[in-house]
Amino acid sequence: MDLAEYRRAARAWLEENAPSDDHPAADGITRAKEFMAKLYDAGYSGITWPKRWGGQGLTEAEEHAFAAEARDFSLPMYVFSIGLGMTGPTLVDRGTDEQRERFVRPLLRGEEIWCQLFSEPGAGSDVASLQTRAVRDGDHWVVNGQKVWTSVAHHADWGLLLARTEVEVPKHKGLTMFVVDMHHPGVTVRPLRDMSGKANFNEIFLDDVTIPDEHRVGEVDDGWSVAVTTLLHERLSISAGVGMGGQKDNPASLEALRRAVDTSDPLVRDQLVELHIRSRALALFNQRLAQEARAGIFPGARGSAAKLLLAELTLFQADLATQLVGPESVLAGHPLAQAISLAPGMALGGGTNEIMRNIVGDRVLGLPPEPRVDKNVPFKDLKVGTQG
Ligand SMILES: Cc1cc2nc3c(=O)[nH]c(=O)nc-3n(C[C@H](O)[C@H](O)[C@H](O)COP(=O)(O)OP(=O)(O)OC[C@H]3O[C@@H](n4cnc5c(N)ncnc54)[C@H](O)[C@@H]3O)c2cc1C
After folding, report:
1. CA angle, residues 138, 139, 145, in degrees to nearest 5
2. Mean pLDDT in residue range 350-366
3. pLDDT tens, 11-49?
4. C-alpha–C-alpha distance, residues 107 and 36, integer Å
5. How far apart are CA 217 and CA 194, in angstroms?
6. What is the pLDDT of residues 191-202, one digit of tens each?
7. Cα 357 → chain centroid
8. Which of 37, 303, 324, 337 is the most buried (most CB within 10 A)?
9. pLDDT surpasses 50 at 147
10. What is the pLDDT of residue 253?
11. What confidence category does residue 242 fall into, taking pLDDT thresholds of 50, 70 and 90?
């Protein structure tokens, strides 16, 4: 099938299968899972993922064609965004064959939901200073600690967990990555409400949670390199909108704003054009990174530039919407309130704008790196939570 045919077929499938707003009132998660199963069975989930693990083994061109069509719909995929954008690609890159066999297909088909357990109350930007401990006990590990800001954990079946396994070495060298069963009796998930009024993320308490050693991802004490793989995928997937399910219902989109405001005013048109240019520049940058990735050129730290651009675009869009529609746009119940109040989170989740700038300065532009006083100090001798 050539690309134009692929695109037509994708469009026809979406028109037939994308849930309509008046979908019968099944609960949100059931509805999302039903949709993902249909998406997978039709061959539109994991388009570029290896066939061997359940993907379609197609190219970035097909993925891009599908994403371009999907933008006109509202697909219930948010709950799968961590699995599709971060934990799944990490397992494909760094998991064992048994782990890929066990986890990847159910993830792509929406049968199992994933979350990412990295951040802690004292370890966000400096995630390598985390304190959650995993201690080996024969063929199992026993985990104790606390995580925070864990998106979709209240729906998750599995979590990708970064834990400390050694304290006698510098902080980055004593971490190990695991897959944790979120239904284990020692896992407590408590929702945290953000300023949009919704509780999309959570705090997690891990009390004597056992994890079989076969659920370790990568080598013992080499979790930092696995985490870097996840973070690279995270930044690319956030900027490309993986799992975000289209723009149709976004009241702050260019199309929605154009309908909502008086476009006879040239200053308004000017601002809408600015929004269009910024969106288009980011889309092209993402397209280029994806094409390069398919050609074997890994985007590396440039993924952080894409994520930074998206965060800045999201804030610009929210400010513009507030300015054009007026102060009532932020009142509870206004269609724009949700999009506006979630915008600042984009400059934090997946790494803050300051951290993205540090990475771009250091690893893309080759500027002098931040001074690192803690680089060679054993973790046990650090005053945790105070290092940069
Ligand atoms: C919507 C959302 C979803 C999230 N989902 C998840 C998730 O699913 N899983 C997960 O593990 N985490 C998640 N997070 C957490 C996110 O990764 C952290 O919030 C982020 O890494 C920042 O950490 P922090 O909040 O502890 O802030 P801190 O690291 O304490 O930073 C505070 C401020 O200091 C600045 N700062 C810190 N260090 C430096 C430095 N070296 N140079 C310059 N400035 C610096 C920061 O930019 C920030 O402005 C989510 C966050 C949000 C907002």
Report:
1. 85
2. 94
3. 999 999 998 765 555 578 999 999 999 999 999 999 999
4. 9
5. 31
6. 999 988 889 999
7. 19
8. 303
9. yes
10. 86
11. low
* CA pair distance 75, 16, nearest whole angstrom: 12
The model's pTM is 0.93
The Cα 116–Cα 327 span in angstroms is: 36
Averaged confidence pLDDT in the chain: 91
Is residue 135 classed as helix, strand or coil in its secondary structure?
strand
Pocket test for ligand 1, best of 125, 242, 312, 342 (most atoms within 8 A of CB): 125
Residue 57 corresponds to which amino acid? G
pLDDT attached to residue 3: 86
Give the separation between CA 114 and CA 90, rounded to whole angstroms.
12
Residue 30, Cβ neighbours under 10 Å: how many?
9
Q: Is 1 exposed, middle or buried (0-12, 13-18, 19+ CB in 10 A)?
A: exposed
Give the count of alpha carbons within 13 A of 331, CB side only. Answer: 6
List the catalytic residues.
234
Identity of the amino acid at 239 = S
The two structure tokens encoding residue 164:
């400390």
Q: Tokens in use for 309?
A: 């651009």
Helix axes 3-17, 60-70, angle to 10 degrees: 40
**Cα–Cα–Cα angle for 118, 193, 196, nearest 5°?**
115
Alpha-carbon gap, residue 265 to 376, rounded angstroms: 59
Distance CA 234, CA 277 (A): 24
Compute the distance between CA of residue 309 and CA of residue 288 in angstroms, rounded to an integer.
14
> Ligand 1 pocket, 118 CB below 6 A?
yes
DSSP states of 157-220 as a string?
Answer: SEEEEEEE--SSSBGGGSEEEEEEETTSTTEEEEEE--TTS---EEEEEEEEEEEEGGGEESST
Distance CA 351, CA 304 (A): 9
Distance CA 129, CA 307 (A): 23
Pocket test for ligand 1, best of 80, 84, 86, 119 (most atoms within 8 A of CB): 119
Helix (H) or strand (E) holding 285: helix 266-294
pLDDT (tens digit, 9 = 90+) per residue, 254-269? 888 998 889 999 999 9
* Ligand 1 neighbourhood includes 132 CB (under 6 angstroms): no
